[in-house]
Specification:
Layout: E1 2-7, H1 11-21, E2 27-33, H2 36-45, E3 50-54, E4 56-57, E5 60-61, H3 62-72, E6 77-82, H4 88-91, E7 98-101, H5 106-129, E8 135-137, E9 143-146, E10 149-150, H6 156-167, E11 173-174, H7 175-182, H8 188-207, E12 215-218, E13 224-227, E14 233-234, H9 235-247, H10 253-261, H11 277-300, H12 304-317, H13 322-334, H14 338-357, H15 365-370
Parallel strand pairs: 1-2, 1-3, 3-6, 6-7, 8-14
Antiparallel strand pairs: 4-5, 8-9, 9-10, 11-13, 12-13
Main location: cytoplasm
Modified residues (4-aspartylphosphate): 54
Protein name: Response regulator
């Protein structure tokens, strides 16, 4: 049975809602209240599953009452019932199960109850299986996968909001900062409404894949949102682990190979997120550093052919880097392919540098050919 209590300042509305609730055989009405204090006392003492709250009352704010109810019972589900559609954005500010307009009818309430039951089933599944297995991949395109499958977002802004919260590595993100990043040209009122509705939609999208209560909210310092996925596997975590291990003086070859394999063109490469640009550039430089480190390791261990495609990735990334092109020429020479080395040298020297850049390549072919192995003795950077 779904145990429900209702708060509305109008007795006529309470009678109408009672009549609709009685249609459902799986619903137990545990109380109908016009007084918010009595309603909250019932929340404290009754094992209630679901509360229906009027959004607008003369002596109480429905949103504030809902917040208090959730603080008393964090597992309780809230449904707002109101005659005014304009308050929907405010309702989205808390993790409400639903928002329905008066007069309440059986068909609409039926959809709400079905959603409640699906949410409860999701929670039970999570308890049976332990924590959800989830992966979050940010290189190339944002991809979130749970035990229920690949998350599909209803709209692009919900997807971008998830990416932005993930971008801040699980820390709280101020509402004003989110609005500035996602709705930079909107007036404050419209932008806040957009934020609340997008948070609501994002929670619904994630909930459909078994991820409930992963978007938390704080009201201090102007308000903030936070993404809570402490046990998720992430390609970003893999990349950072590989990079930091190498920076600390230990090249974990297998780890670096996996990090390079997962790069997929760059951080959120397939999304046009302006706020991600600086992070993209930072990770691009780190990617190049890992490429050079792995190329050097391969060459030192005689794995010359394995080094070649990595050098090509690096050259594609930095087409005007003399350092990269010199290594490519040197590698062809070490592979006993002097014709290929010379052809590559003249292509870069004559086309890339003389024509496109207007100046000469800084090293002669003979200088590189004199000791090609020397180019892999030190870490040379990007230039």
């Amino acid at each position: 049975m779904i145990k429900i209590i209702v708060l509305d300042d109008e007795r006529v509305a309470l009678r109408q809602m009672k009549k609709v609730l009685q249609i459902f055989s799986n619903v137990q009405i545990c109380g109908l209240f016009t007084d918010p204090d009595e309603f909250l006392q019932a929340v404290r003492t009754e094992r209630v599953d679901l509360v229906l709250i009027d959004m607008v009352m003369p002596d109480a704010n429905g949103l504030a009452v809902a917040r208090t109810a959730q603080s008393l019972r964090p597992d309780i589900s809230v449904v707002f019932v109101t005659a005014y559609e304009k308050y929907a954005a405010e309702a989205f500010e808390i993790e409400a199960l639903d928002y329905v307009l008066k007069p309440l009818d059986g068909k609409r309430l039926g959809r709400t109850l079905q959603r409640f039951l699906r949410r409860q089933e999701t929670l039970r599944d999570g308890q049976r299986k332990g924590r959800n297995a989830i992966s979050v991949n940010c290189f190339g395109r944002l991809v979130i996968v749970t035990e229920q499958g690949k998350v599909r977002f209803i709209n692009a802004k919900a997807e971008e909001l998830f990416a932005y919260l993930a971008h801040h590595a699980g820390g709280p993100v101020n509402k004003a900062k989110i609005i500035e990043a996602l709705w930079p040209n909107r007036d404050v009122v419209r932008a806040q409404a957009n934020l609340y509705s997008t948070v609501y939609q994002l929670r619904k999208d994630l909930e459909a894949y078994g991820l409930r209560a992963v978007i938390s909210q704080s009201r201090s310092s102007g308000g903030s949102y936070q993404l809570n996925l402490p046990h998720a596997e992430s390609d970003m975590d893999l990349f950072e682990q590989a990079y930091q291990t190498w920076k600390n003086g230990q090249l974990d070859q297998s780890l670096v190979e996996r990090a390079i394999e997962h790069y997929h063109g760059g951080y959120l490469h397939e999304h046009d997120y302006r706020w991600a640009l600086s992070r993209q550039q930072e990770l691009e430089v780190r990617y190049a550093e890992l490429l050079e480190a792995l190329v050097t390791e391969y060459v030192r261990n005689g794995r010359l052919y394995q080094a070649l495609p990595l050098l090509q990735k690096w050259a594609d990334l930095f087409p005007y880097s003399e350092h990269v092109h010199a290594k490519m020429i040197a590698l062809f020479l070490l592979l006993k392919q002097p014709e290929q080395a010379r052809a590559y040298y003249y292509k870069v020297s004559n086309e890339t540098y003389s024509v496109e850049l207007g100046y000469e390549f800084g090293r002669s072919f003979e200088q590189i050919a004199a000791n090609p192995a020397a180019l892999f003795d030190t870490f040379g950077g990007l230039a």
